[in-house]
Design brief:
351 residues, seven-stranded mixed β-sheet, zinc ion binding, Quinone Oxidoreductase, Chain A, domain 1, Rossmann fold, binds zinc ion, ER, alcohol dehydrogenase (NADP+) activity, metal-binding, alpha/beta, ADH_Zn_CS
Length: 351
């Protein structure tokens, strides 16, 4: 199929630094939108994929799934977008559209596997997909989102992954005015969870291991910060929360947080993938009808709903802008949680 070469930043091997390279993008097919990428957020998944931390990375790899930009070309049958529209692309660029999950707008749980924005398999070319660390991307219009015009475009980029990853559980567990929500961990995901839960009218508590996050959390909208290493503070919130969004990306003891759930409350894991240690004790779950659940990103309709909500409530991410060439140093800083709260690449630096 016809392709065009575009500049990108990617890596050839797990231990190699990211560097400039050329990649092929398919030319627009009738249902495709071509996007000139203006900004791209930097997600922890980018780093894990670049370094093959989860296995399965195909090289060269070009990360980036918090993409915002401007429509530069459209296919003949595109009806939802026109040239010049401000648009976004998140973690999903294709799915089967026919399975039970897809029929319910749950493309993130596509039973045939969704096509990832990077390191996925492009159904058109049969080759792997490349992410947003590049000049342009071509995506089927069904997987492209409208970005509300009033939002700061660069700061809206992280909504496409960090935003919807926390929005989806807030909506699924019906958070509304007066709900009591707690967030574990204050990073890219955690700070979005606070803003979105607050926007929905919930009272929001941050669990933090140290007091140094208190001022920042309150500035982001948290009503309260509970120091999770302080037993008396943890006891003071026993049985309080309807929903806990746990964004911590490494193995940690969730039993103390389960104790703070209300009857029928749910703790939902969105950051950590793997076996829980120490063991999860079922006693408080059974005696309080409590749940421990998981959730991954969100569907396309839900992502648009979240973006529209953010437009209405003027919610964006807190970002630090970087040039494309700073990406390797930025990955090192991310590993030390040295970012408030998301890096966003100014793609003009790639030109
Ligand atoms: Zn991500
Ligand atoms: Zn499907």
């Amino acid at each position: 199929m016809a392709t065009t070469q575009v500049k990108a930043f990617g890596t050839e091997a797990p231990e190699a630094a990211l560097q400039q390279m050329n990649i092929e993008r398919r030319n627009v097919t009738p249902k495709d939108v071509e996007i000139e990428i203006l900004f791209c957020g930097v997600c922890h998944s980018d780093l894990h994929t670049a370094r093959n931390d989860w296995g399965g990375t195909i090289y060269p790899a070009v990360p980036g799934h918090e993409i915002v930009g401007k429509v530069s070309s459209i296919g003949a049958e595109v009806s939802k977008f026109k040239v010049g529209d401000l648009v976004g692309v998140g973690c999903i660029v294709d799915s089967c559209k026919t399975c039970d999950s897809c029929k319910q707008d749950l493309e993130q749980y596509c039973l045939n596997g969704f096509t990832g924005t990077y390191n996925g398999k492009d159904k058109h070319s049969g080759k792997q997909t490349f992410g947003g660390y590049s000049e342009k991307v071509t995506v089927n219009e069904e997987f492209v989102l409208h970005i509300p015009k009033n939002l700061d475009l660069a700061a809206a980029a992280p909504l496409l992954c960090a935003g919807v990853t926390t929005w989806s559980p807030l909506k699924h567990w019906n958070v509304k005015e007066g709900s009591k929500v707690a967030v574990v961990g204050l990073g890219g995901l955690g700070h979005m969870a606070i803003k979105l839960a607050k926007g929905l009218g919930a009272s929001v508590t941050l669990f933090s291991r140290t007091p140094d996050k208190i001022a920042d959390a309150k500035e982001l909208g948290a009503d309260e910060v509970v120091i999770s290493t302080d037993d008396s503070q943890m006891k003071s919130v026993a049985g309080k929360f309807d929903l806990i969004i746990d964004t911590v990306p490494y193995v940690h003891d969730i039993n103390p947080y389960v104790a703070t759930l209300n009857i029928s409350g749910t703790l939902v894991l969105v950051g950590y993938l793997g076996p829980l240690e120490p063991f999860l004790n079922s006693v408080p779950m059974i005696l309080g009808r409590k749940s421990v659940a998981g959730s991954v990103i969100g569907g396309i309709a839900e992502t648009q709903e979240m973006l529209d909500f953010c437009g209405k409530h003027n919610i964006v991410s807190e970002i630090e802008m970087i040039n494309m060439q700073d990406i390797n140093a930025s990955y090192e800083r991310m590993l030390k949680s040295d970012v408030k709260y998301r890096f966003v690449i100014d793609m003009a630096s790639l030109k």
